[in-house]
Design brief:
6 copies of one chain form a homohexamer. Chain A starts with 10 loop residues before the first helix and ends with a helix. Helices cover 68% and strands 0% of the residues of chain A. The interface between A and B is large, with 41 and 41 residues.
């Protein structure tokens, strides 16, 4: 049974919902929060802009000349469906994404993008460094150190250094 | 320069510190929060118990007969050094660990352990399911679905089903 | 510019299109073949049934009790968007999927599922064995041998042995 | 029991054989198609040239000064034994190889080489893009997007752009 | 220039050669030690027996019914070409193999096989445990702990417990 | 029960100990060789210098400006705890590390560092090339060839070419 009639305008409404459900003991996980079939692109474009204001255009500039469907899938499914699910604030989503990409170690440019997205969404550089240090336990020191160096590079670029 | 004189007794002190530093604009990431050389095992044992109350004994029962140093390293470095660093609440550490292990897909039993640790530390099952859905974007659907199934199994076992 | 007005009913139309475009020198890759926003679930359900006739129900039985959105995403995006793209016959899609999963070695149950899907879609067991032998060159012998054993198990089960 | 007396001169003979076996119900997979112990290097050199006409020389130029056995193993086993097995046309072998390397994400230069090999062997750029989009489902979007960018770069270089 | 006229009968000759070359300053790495095209299967069978006396038969029993070429490739290339290269004693080859498989974490049964092969070839269980502890630094604790448990299981089975 | 009263000054003492224990049949693996809590940094700094004389300073120059704890963890745990464990000579530790990193393929700069460390610790370039050729069997040719190229580059740089 879905308790949502549409896409919440703010994160506050979602946070309140989570607290209410926690206190009421309802099994939140069984609640469908699929954001719906309509307006997936526009919704995705809005969520993507919260971690990188111009990224929709960057994606189009990079991929439209290869095939116009590529950016559509990333924005519709990645951001319009998954990121729009609420429950987890966008800052926590970025933290999980950063951890996953740092642990895998196979996508350095996307790791940099999401470190930037995390900083934009409110993570501190220090918090991202902590995630990387944790990665030393689960993927080894090379993955952790490479993640730390990436974090400093991205943070420095954002500081205009 | 380290701003800590010792290991903070509660998470609240750490949270306050983070807010103060954020507001003062100090670069928190440059602050050393190494928890010190003394009492690493005891400190680690305490942090480990926050995600799994009996895990120190489980580790000793499993590994002492192979070599008594194994549990020492896990507890001293993993929990006594890294988990004890503060900055990131233990619930967030578990979220990052869960994301990393689910994305890698090479350690199912440790993934299960940390899902349990996450639930113990205050993550909702729904929040962990959200992490797994995010993993579909960064490691593919098989990793995500396997993580979802693990989450439900661990949560069910904790509910005594 | 999209050359499709809707979802082709048969693979033959797609094959003809590919040949026409090849001969005319048009850059096929720039042709958008996004199957459209409407009816993604039904379309996905139909494509999924081509590799496993009852899998939609299996997914719902497995995941609906955890969260009803999970099966929706797999079917809507995985099969309704990606598998429905044409260009590559479903048998070739299964071959690529089998190669990817065998090379990664992190999702044995999904590998088995897609080996079965490949056989259903018209791949010969011998052709799948050839893919696995190729995997020895790109992911090593353990991945190849594990893939070969999985292929034989799935084929045997389908033969009713 | 091997049905081959030697190495088939053309792919057509192999295709015919596959069809005959399919129709006769024989279990093709149990047919040994080991191309034999003699002439492995020459046979491998010929198969390698079908995906990259000058690659034998490139391998020798790169590796002979390190150790002359390296190129021998790649050509003898990789191409003289595995690629020479028939059953799967070389274009399909390249498709599987591309899928495996894109999913792993750990060998970008070899992925580029085999994308080029695939185009040489008759795959369309559009078909390779489809494989990469499929990879988004099994290894995540970063792997898929990196594969797509590699595909366009290699195709552009071949077009002399 | 190859200094070998054929396959050395014992490891002692190889060890002596290595020492002579080290002392004379010759660049050993440029020395081709390809063991030759003749007798690859018999040579491979003999090398394989040094780590597992009955493994050739186990491979044939497992794979011949799937395709008789599989065991041929493993034995001819894996053991007849690569393991037969000398330079590195078989015990050191097993140590490197164990490290690689433990770090990858994707092939538990092959990891167990090669732990057994390492013990057979003269590695101590303690030495293998040391490799696994090193793996904690380069692939994380889960990989290390899983490798340690596998080592103890295999060693215990060999002790008849 | 620990048979060590402190940190052995030379490797010879360790080698002797291993032989004595082997002959006496004692189960070496159950012997704790934890190097102790005191002086971990200094001990680690000394072990690290055996594979790279100036690396402690390189680590500090790279990471202290990000967070001074990073280098402490690498040196204290990586080298002061794990590398200091004896049992396995440092040359064998480097061989295992090289195998692990080459097989994973996700940390090229750390692979280069440890190839250099291996050469410093007494491995021959030829021995490292042999490890890479073995990697072809367990992680595929791309990993092996990339490892071989890295080995030659590092060796060449050390020869001043």
């Amino acid at each position: 049974m879905s308790v949502y009639a549409g896409f919440p305008a703010t994160l506050n409404a979602m946070a309140t919902l989570v607290e209410v459900l926690k206190e009421s003991g309802k099994t939140l996980s069984k609640v469908a929060v699929h954001a719906g079939s309509a307006g997936r692109y526009e919704r995705g474009k809005e969520w993507l802009s919260r971690i990188a204001p111009h990224q929709e255009q960057v994606l189009k500039d990079t991929f439209d000349t290869i095939n116009p469907d590529i950016t559509r899938y990333v924005i519709e499914f990645g951001y319009g469906d998954i990121y729009a699910r609420g429950i987890l604030p966008i800052r926590n989503r970025q933290a999980a994404t950063i951890a996953a990409l740092a642990a895998k170690g196979t996508a350095p440019s996307q790791l940099r993008f999401h470190i930037g997205g995390g900083l934009k969404a409110g993570l501190l550089e220090a918090e991202i460094i902590e995630i990387m240090l944790l990665i030393s336990l689960y993927a080894g020191f090379p993955a952790a150190l490479n993640g730390i160096l990436a974090t400093r590079e991205v943070a420095a670029a954002r500081e205009g250094l």
